[in-house]
Amino acid sequence: MKKVITAILLCMFCICISGCSNDNQKTTWNMRSIQDNNGEVIYCSNESKDVYSNAIVKDIVCILQGSSITITDKSSGNKWIGNCTKLDSSQDIYEVIFDNNKKGVLSKSVTKYEDKTKENTLVVSCEGYTLYFTENTDETN
């Protein structure tokens, strides 16, 4: 099951539709999982805890607004703030530079599942970690 989910999430890079937007619309994303550089899920959302039983449950959100990105760990209050720059005009993949000068890559895509459902997803890779987010469609965030 983990291999299937990992394969689906990795396919998101191939389906990129856009990253940091040029407009100033605020979009909130909820963390689904975080993988280390070995591909092991080390953190997950409460909703994903049954799938990733060895992972630590965390409540992490990402807010994109224009070229700005803010990732917040709601339980600890830690924040990572950065800016996005498009890497290639033919692709919707962005470089992210956080305030601590750590660099990463961001991609927004649509994940399609076997049951024909789909959801907007955001992937941020930085310093050996890959963070997977799903778009928060709930107005209360």
UniProtKB/TrEMBL annotation:
Origin superkingdom: Bacteria
Keywords for the protein's UniProt record, in alphabetical order: Signal
Residues making up the signal peptide according to the UniProt record: 1-23
Name of protein: Lipoprotein
Upper taxonomic lineage: Bacteria, Bacillati, Bacillota, Clostridia, Peptostreptococcales
